[in-house]
Amino acid sequence: MRLDGMDVLYPVNIALGAPLVLAVALLSYKSGRYRSRLIRLLGGRSSRILDVIAAARIAAVILLVIASAAPYTYKITYVDSSSADRSVLANISALHVILVDDSKSMSYTDMGGRRIDLARGVVEEYLRELGEKDTVAIYRFHAVAEELCRGKPVECMNSLGNLTGSEKYSALGTAIGQVATIASATRLPVIGILVSDGGYNYGPDPASVADSLGNTTVAIVRIGNDPRGEVLRSIAERHKWPYYHVTGSPPKGLVEDLAETIYVEAKARAVSRNGMIPVEERDYTPTWILAMIGALLLAASKVAGP
Predict the structure, then answer these.
(1) In 3-state terms, what secondary structure has residue 280?
(2) Distance between CA 246 and CA 147 in Å, rounded?
(3) What one-character DSSP code corresponds to residue 167?
(4) Does residue 9 register a pLDDT over 70?
(5) Which of 2, 123, 143, 237 has the most CB within a 10 Å radius?
(6) Domains with residue ranges and CATH for the chain
(7) Distance between CA 154 and CA 174 in Å, rounded?
(8) Long-range contacts of residues 210-215, Cβ cutoff 8 Å, at least 24 apart
């Protein structure tokens, strides 16, 4: 729940608050019974103290219900995108659209390693880099872009086993266009990651599709040394997209470092505005104040009366 912006009440908050609502009803019922007895003992005269005690109990539980929704104040600060580190980026929600070439050329071997295996390894490490606020949409592309999984990174890890490098066609332009299609359908920042050897043989011209993307950014990971892959370099240079080239069987740690580099560079570019990244800072002091006041009122009312 946000005090100075859009209010959000999560189901877990409602679940936590439900017992408190029941407590209000129970306290009101019991207070009424005790109050009636005491009034009879006092000869039918009402007591202002009893009214105050009853009101304090109801107010206390209402405050505790509000506190259970975790209200907070927030402010926006701006960080230079060139100096943003992983800790800053991990706190920003984003959708990562990962498109992997699953055509036959990806099953070829370069310097001791199959391209599709290397591509799968890069994507797997990339998924491990993502934060709790990141979601992914993984596609394998051939004649079309086919969705394999959408959700949290850990949930989509097993879908990488469907990348086999066995399809006849490779529609590189269609894959690039898929990023723009998804970006137009969500309010989240979209990070496009294209993993391919560049050997396309089907669909629209990838360079023309890239020209039509506007501000949408696609980080390109070129796999292997296929000469046709130079089209990927050309597109990246033309649009100033992040470009990475991976060949053979990289030494231990290189793929992990590459995944982290892609994550930081690509996400920083996707979430930045005019070179600055908006970072939301939350202060949950209101939650603790409300909870403390509510607890004190409840305790005081129990001490002061029935």
Answers:
(1) strand
(2) 24
(3) B
(4) no
(5) 123
(6) 11-72+284-304 (no CATH), 79-279 (3.40.50.410)
(7) 27
(8) 210/176, 210/235, 210/238, 210/239, 211/238, 211/239, 212/177, 212/180, 213/176, 213/177, 213/179, 213/180, 213/239, 214/180
Q: Is 29 helix (H, G, I), strand (E, B) or coil?
A: helix
Tokens of 122: 């890069």
Residue 182 burial (C-beta neighbours within 10 Å; 0-12, 13-18, 19+): buried
Per-residue pLDDT at 41: 52
CB 190 within 8 A of CB 164: no
Which tops the pLDDT comparison, 163 or 256?
163
| pLDDT-derived band at 205, boundaries 50, 70, 90 | very high
How many alpha carbons fall within 13 Å on the CB side of residue 180?
Answer: 14
| Helical spans, DSSP H, in the chain | 11-41, 48-68, 86-89, 115-129, 153-156, 172-183, 206-211, 230-239, 254-271, 285-304
Residue 278 one-letter amino acid: P
Instruction: Determine the 3-state secondary structure of 95 from DSSP.
Output: strand
Give 271 or 49, the one with higher predicted confidence: 271
Cα 163 from Cα 100, distance rounded (Å)? 8
Q: CA 250, CA 235: separation in Å to the nearest integer?
A: 25
Which DSSP letter does residue 195 get?
Answer: E
180 with 84: CB under 8 angstroms? Answer: no
Six token digits for residue 225: 């040394």
Contacts of 228 (CB under 8 A, 6+ apart): 197, 198, 199, 200
What is d(CA 155, CA 139) in angstroms, rounded to the nearest whole number?
A: 14
Q: Residue 46 has which token pair?
A: 């009402």
DSSP 103: B
Classify the C-alpha dihedral 290-292-298-301 as positive or negative: negative
Phi, psi of 223 (to 5 degrees): -110, 125
CA atoms of 104 and 196, how far apart (whole Å): 11
